[in-house]
Amino acid sequence: MSEPTASHRLFRRYLQEQGLPVTRQRMAVADVVFTSQEHLSVEEIEARLRERGERIGKATVYRTLDLLVRSRLVVERDFGEGFKRYEHRLSREPIHEHLICVECGKVVEFQSWEVQEVESRIAALYGFRPVRHRLEVYGLCPACQARGAKLATDGVTCPIETV
Amino acid sequence: MSEPTASHRLFRRYLQEQGLPVTRQRMAVADVVFTSQEHLSVEEIEARLRERGERIGKATVYRTLDLLVRSRLVVERDFGEGFKRYEHRLSREPIHEHLICVECGKVVEFQSWEVQEVESRIAALYGFRPVRHRLEVYGLCPACQARGAKLATDGVTCPIETV
DNA sequence: GTCCATGCAAACCTTTTGCACTATA
DNA sequence: TATAGTGCAAAAGGTTTGCATGGAC
User: Fold this and answer.
1) Among A90, A107, A138, where does a domain finish?
2) Do residues B57 and B98 make contact, with C-beta atoms less than 8 angstroms apart?
3) Does the reported pTM lie above 0.90?
4) How many folded domains does chain B comprise?
């Protein structure tokens, strides 16, 4: 385990506030998430724990991630891959969107002031009280374009025709 | 099966163009999706097939939905519920976003010109070639607000402190 | 008659749960 | 020492696949 980060200490405090035990496993999982700048899957988290010589059951990883999400120190992401990814929230912009390469899966974060406006406008229009949003732009990253990656186009010949 | 819609005919044509058999099951699944204005889950599609007296295996439903998505007549949606939803594309705005109630699951569609601009701006900035995007705003719908629905708040006392 | 689709069940994958055992506070 | 966490394996939930049978063309 590396030297404690601010997030590390905050998570310990969260556990204490909630009257929950601070265990080696919990702090190890938290540390993996906090020391990564990526959007980690559970599989990736387990791999990093193994690299560190930590032998932690899958169930404990899931249970700890649940605590991290509850503490709001970590955000759960779903890019439609069939599994979730986890991203820590501290020392990065609190609200950001994702640009995702459909070919290689590379993820770039960006900020958009416009989206905040859309959220407010639409929420007011329909009487919703907005809680959060997600904006994802999918496309081909520069590297995949350079590699000549192509996108499957296989639809009906003219989907907009009136028939 | 109701009277053939334009989408119905387009799907038949798609199958023929691809040299695939036009079967009763495929057309029944397509019809359920095309005659609904909702975002249907596989479970809901199966229920509607049962109501119509169609007895179609789950695997066939999935395989047909795959064809419908490939044909681009139907779009697959993932609202993070743990399963997919399917929405037909014709006779509605081609590009729209979703406003989703976190309490009751109600979905409202809306359009945003701003998002198109964000997509272009960000794609150009990072050299991506944009393919598609998704914007979802989550919140409490008017009905759930009126019912006094509350949102869980359980995070660390001050996640932004420097420690 | 040739392919391909269908239906059923088993397999798959991610995530959750039950339970005996262990560790925290 | 009491309470809660851990690990393992089984279960759960959605989706996919293998294979013998049946239907489309």
Assistant:
1) A90
2) no
3) no
4) 2
